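ok here's Tat pathway signal sequence, seq below lol
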Amino acid sequence: RFDGTMDRKSPYKGPPNHDVDVKWDKILPLRVMSIPEPIFQTLNASNSSVKTPSYLDLPPGRIALFDTMHHLHCVRELWKSAYPNYYTAAQRLTPSQHDDYIAHLDHCVDMLRQKLMCDSSSHLITYNWLKGHSHPHPNFNVEHKCKSYDDILEMEDRWGIKDLPKDGFVRGMYGEGEVVEFGGDEPPFDPRAEGSVWHHGGKS
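and the structure came out like this:
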């Protein structure tokens, strides 16, 4: 059952402080994973998804991130934007960087909109009378059947790349042969989209 009490104390709610950040960091590692190739083949993902570099000495796979962690990242960023005097990085942005920051928040809002409309919870919120209130009050303490987020964290720990170099994934640096790249600033929407082949030293 969700606890929808308005003034409920939660380790993930404000006011922001170091302990709240530690709690968020624990449930939101945001570490790149290497998922096994057989699992990748079950996804309707881009055929050109980045392969796990061989220098990592891991089984063949693709680099990935759990979708739910991206959604939680978006929730956290929106929450942080409500406390600009504590999370002050946005105040130090140039006008161009600030535009990118707003675009990031817009992206987060629309990703969460798509997720919520996709799942479309049909659970019902009922109402109760409260003393001193002239209108019925919605009872947000709705019962849900939840998946185990601990299972997600366990898989993230199992597949997470723990010894990623500081330079991360640099195209062509480690002699991985050909890679496929796409024009513009966004990955392909169509999983079957074909990009241009890029070899170490340039495109072909």
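fwiw Helices lie at 18-27, 37-40, 67-81, 95-119, 149-159. kinda neat tbh
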